[in-house]
Amino acid sequence: MTNSTVDSEKTVTQPQAPESEGATSDTFRSLRELVDFVSGKSLINLTQEDSGLAESLPFPFLAIVGQREMKLALLLGLVNPNIGGILLIGPRGTAKTTAVRSLLDLLPQVERSNCHYGCLPEEVEFGGISAICPDCAKKYAAGESLTSPDRVRLIELPLNSQLEDVIGGINERTSVPHDRMRVRRGVLARADRNLLYIDEVNMLADNIVDAILDASAQGRYTVRRGPISATYRARFLLIGSMNPEEGRLRPQILDRFGLRVIVKGLKLQNERLDAYRRVKSYQTNPRQMIAQFANEIHAASKEIQAARQRLHTVTIPDVVAMPAIKLVQKMGIESLRAEITWFETARAYAAADGRTKVNTKDLKVVAPMSLRLRRSSFITDYINKQQDEESELNSLLISLGKKKSKKKQSNTRK
Fold first, then answer.
1. Of 36, 53, 140, 373, whose Cβ has the fewest other Cβ atoms within 10 Å?
2. Which tens digits make up the pLDDT trace of 104-136?
3. DSSP label of 12
């Protein structure tokens, strides 16, 4: 009787699972429930200091306090890379870069090239057997696999990168006649099927931005150096962050980011205090602090992988999609990327929630991050002026036709 009473009290105060037991993949019905649960998790006081070893241990993603929209956008990007990129906009010190780098433990698996030069089976279909290096051509002919499962990686683009670093250049150390082996792969080629993160994207040089946008739009790019050329796949999820105080983003660049997240500072005092304590725990002993979220991170990683596999079965009924398109038109948004991003994000949200059909509630949840910052006053004024000109032209053409018909009638009477 006593045991059942205790269990009942636990169920009321903590419906998911007792913290002492940790989370498992079966504890939560969806990724969203898991994230909401961990946001309120209490930490064990850390008394043991760090060992002092130089280790690269990212802050646990699920340990970030608040910032629900930012965390949701990044998780949905992992579920569905087709959302078209994520832009984090906000002041310094709001955990933008921390959140992106914290994704390392949550990244799902993809098929990765085993070749140093990035040869893939798709390259043979696209450009023939000569499109891959000789070693991979032998493996392909023998029926051996050119890829193997590997975790998605986070590729960061430094602000001081040169164009050759981004797209690649000539490898001076090799004398092999095969073009692919003479071209050194750039950041864009290494970012294929990975996350490409650009901190302070509004400070990036225009020529580098143009190269990234072209590769992102096409999913591939070609490096040409005189008679030498090589084509690489560049299918990546672009993540950018910026501080508006340091300059605006060109409209052309902004349009390439599907989700736009406004990251603000924490408003509640208890959240700011909780954030301080978590940062202090991490600074005191990062490994021990990370271990307190190990079960939840493992469960979230499995949920993301399951959501990715479920995504291809998720559909949007016309009865849900048509009113959404009407809303986009009422907002005066001309770009078709608005509903493409909105619908793809809603599909990812439904998949993460364990469902295969998008409903109106899903669209409402992801609408702000999908539709904000898409209207342009310049374009609106420009189109209105053009419409005035078109109306004037059409009225003149109508009157011109009437004059011609009157002349024909008078000539006929004569």
1. 53
2. 888 877 777 778 777 888 777 777 787 778 888
3. H
